[in-house]
Amino acid sequence: MILRLILAFLAAVVTTAVLAAAASTQFVLAELARLGIDIGMGDRLSMTVQDIMGMGMMYLPIVAVAFLLAFGIAALVIRYLLPGWLVPGYTLAGFTGILAILLIMLAAFGLVPIAGARSIPGMLSQGLAGAVGGYLFARMISSRSAAAVNG
Length: 151
Description:
This protein is mainly alpha-helical. Helix content is 83%, strand content 0%. It is built from 5 helices and no strands. The protein is elongated, with a radius of gyration of 17 Å.
């Protein structure tokens, strides 16, 4: 049970960091294209992979902290208030956890350090990456562990 939770958590964190880094890259490249800079598909792919390996890896601890808090709260809410909401609960927790951590960084530093998240659509794309991570976490723990998580 605990190994399954750890593996599900790690999979959710890595998946979210990879998707969030890729989304951030695409939002930055879209801004460059809007300024008239021509960016080919090969360059897009190369920059995306480079950002996943760079920014994505630096994003891992931030996502992990966000998910520890959000999934911890979700576990309590699901267990005591919404027992049938395992998948929607963790999906929502992933979304709100990432948005919360970005907004906390904005409040603390005066800007969002993730360049592709400095617009509302960019920030929402980060939240969607978190939602995918939350969904993955819920699906990975849901088969045999659902009874234990839900009480």
